[in-house]
Amino acid sequence: MAPGTHKPNRGELYIPASESATGPGHPLYTKLNNVLNQTGFDRFVEKCGAPASAIDPEKHLILQGS
Fold it and tell me: What domain range includes position 65?
């Protein structure tokens, strides 16, 4: 066979993340996420970062000492 004439059928190479298999995750991180969600940690961090976001919305920074 001449070079360049054989084209293997590889199918689709892109697999969306939503279709990939995921494991149950580590129990430590599952518990940690539950605790952080229950205590409102995300809202706290968003409030801390609000002044930096107001200055430059492209940068998502938390000001040191806040």
Answer: 27-66
